[in-house]
Amino acid sequence: MKRYPGLERPSKPNWEGLVANILRRGTPDRAYHLELFQDAEIADAIAERYDLLEGLDPGYPYFAEKCEIAIQRFCGFDYVCSRLEGMRMPLFTQAVADTAGLARPGGRSFQDEHRGPIMSWEDFEAYPWPDPGAPGATRELEWYQENLPDDMCLVARGVGHFAEYACWLMGYETLCYSLYDARDLVEAVAGRLLEIDRIQLDRLLEFDRVKAVFASDDMGFKTGLLISPDDTRELMLSGHKVLAEMCHAAGRPYLFHSCGNLNDIYDDLVDDVKIDAKHSFEDTIEDVCELKHTLGERIALLGGIDVDFLCRADEAAIRARVRHTLDVCMPGGGYCLGTGNSVANYIPLDNYLAMLDEGWLYGN
């Protein structure tokens, strides 16, 4: 089995250092890692290779949470992610066979871009909206609140999907037409999503182990936004501004993930919404190192080791890129090492581990 000396050292999480780094309070003492998520297939493969679940009881009611802690600590992370349970929304998707090396047994799902479950006012009224106030929604959070190791924190997820859910609930094609033909319906969908997220976030922020909130909302593609900048500001960024204000009032940073070219709204995100960090950087759009002395002077930058690069590069190239990225982005704080998007199951496992390992070896 291939050896990774950085990962094999005892993990010493430090959530205070992670948060201070995100808030750009000076050059950190080490590289900090942050990911939007790891695909379950990647996490399971790491756990199996390194026997991380040895001694854990599969029959324990919170076995999955104990597994998550073990895997996150091995990877050198200072946190685990959690969210309210029961918040999934029924959507129109189609699954196809997964051709990844660590293939997903149920296939890979794709969104129907032409139509969605809400294409009329009748659909809107009949839609089974989730209840963020449901009594059992905080089950996992309650367990982590009492059982998460003291040197780790919770990063809350599950809020801020305003652009994504507008596209998914209506279908992207229908959304675009409706902005002109049924704008009141689009506004109603946006309003309901914000109403749900206000309650969600209120409940998440009740847990003092939650030290940051990571909103996820893909708003663009390679060359621009999915809808116009003005519509994005009115219908999506207005919701993010409310959530960011709630986080800041509670003393937590608001981290923002979005794929796509956001050049038209970066000033809005920083100066109006007041995000504390931006995540998702793709080489074909922008290099995180080039942003360090522009956008990175205003907010933290998260990730940026391009996913396509991680899939195709050899170990030497991956390690060299990690070192270069940390050389450029770590000074002054405000950078966390990670993939450009997420740890997808088609990234070769050893390539991902090489990225993590080089981050742990950096400066040591």
Number of helices: 14
Which ranges are low-confidence, i.e. pLDDT below 50, for 5 or more consecutive residues? none
Q: Helical content, roughly? A: 40-55%
The order of strands across the largest sheet is 1-4-5-6-7-8-9
**Helix/strand/pairing class, anyone?**
alpha/beta
Radius of gyration: 20 Å
Mean of residue pLDDT values: 96
Percentage of residues in DSSP E strands: 5-15%
Q: Outline, from the CA principal axes?
A: globular
Main CATH class: Alpha Beta
- Main beta sheet: 7 strands, parallel
CATH hierarchy: architecture? Alpha-Beta Barrel
**What number of structural domains do the residues give?**
1
Q: What is the CA-CA span between the terminal residues?
A: 23 Å
CATH topology-level fold name: TIM Barrel
String of helices and strands = HHHEEEHHEHHHEHEHEHEHHEH
Number of strands: 9
Task: Provide a descriptive summary of the structure in words.
The chain is of the alpha/beta class. The protein has one domain (15-111, 129-161, 179-361): TIM Barrel (Alpha-Beta Barrel), CATH 3.20.20. It is 42% helix and 10% strand. A seven-stranded parallel beta sheet has the order 1-4-5-6-7-8-9, sandwiched between helices. A two-stranded antiparallel sheet has the order 2-3. Strand 6, helix 10 and strand 7 (277-279) form a beta-alpha-beta unit. Helix 9 packs parallel to helix 10. The protein is globular. The mean pLDDT is 96.
